[in-house]
Amino acid sequence: MNLIVTLDDQNGMLFNHRRQSRDRVLNDRIATLCGGRLTVTAYTAALLEGLPVDLTISEDPLAAAKPGDWCFLEDRSPAPALEKIEKLVVYRWNRVYPSDLKFDIDLSAMKCVSKTDFAGYSHEKLTEEVYLP
Fold first, then answer.
1. What is d(CA 61, CA 65) in angstroms, rounded to the nearest whole number?
2. How many CB atoms lie within 10 A of CB 112?
3. Number of domain units in the chain
4. C-beta of residue 39 within 8 angstroms of C-beta of residue 61
5. What whole-number distance in Å separates Cα of residue 56 and Cα of residue 94?
6. How far is CA 104 from the centre of its chain?
7. DSSP string of 4-63, one letter each residue
8. Which of 6, 38, 88, 131 lies 20 to 30 A from 117 at CA?
9. Quick one: which of 46, 33, 28, 23 has its CA closest to 92?
10. Alpha-carbon torsion, ordered 26, 33, 103, 20, to 10 deg
11. How does DSSP classify residue 112?
12. Under 8 Å between Cβ of 11 and 97
């Protein structure tokens, strides 16, 4: 499984059961990256509405994603699926937001193979980090 997450500078994912931020350029980038197929929760599906992507909606997207599939996770811990991860793509907001759900995988145990900054719509700078186990 290829996993996509969005994080703030302190690895925050959610605050009070809501995403910290959103950016339409980032959403377009995710739709392109996944090749038009993505496994998500119903919560994340609403974010991607209108994009050219075939969504598999699951209450447990980490379990539903098969080898080679792309999964975009916003609202739960990714750690239970650590062994399934073939590639991890982290998008950084390059800001600190309030958060009560933190990303719980130790990135220092993975290999960062690329890091790219790009301009978003509502964010002057977003960063894409790609990790391999």
1. 6
2. 13
3. 1
4. yes
5. 29
6. 13
7. EEEE-TT-EEEETTEES---HHHHHHHHHHTTTEEEE-HHHHHHTTTSS-EEEE-SSHHH
8. 38
9. 23
10. 20
11. E
12. no
Residue range(s) defining the domain that contains residue 45: 2-132
Comparing CA positions, the residue from 44, 80, 79, 81 lying closest to residue 59 is 44
Q: Which token pair is 33?
A: 């990256």
Query: Between the CA of residue 62 and those of 29, 44, 73, 110, what are the distances in Å?
Result: 21, 13, 8, 19
- Tokens read off for 79: 């750690």
Which CATH number do you get for residue 74? 3.40.430.10
The model's pLDDT over 4-32, given as tens digits with 9 standing for 90+, comes to 999 999 999 999 999 999 999 999 999 99
Convert 67-95 into a string of H (helix), E (strand) and C (coil).
CCCEEECCCCCCHHHHHHCCEEEEEECCC
121 pLDDT tier (thresholds 50, 70, 90):
very high
Task: For tokens 């790219």, name the residue.
Answer: 116
Tens of pLDDT, residues 60-113: 999 999 999 999 999 999 999 999 999 999 999 999 999 999 999 999 999 999
pLDDT given for residue 10 in this prediction: 96
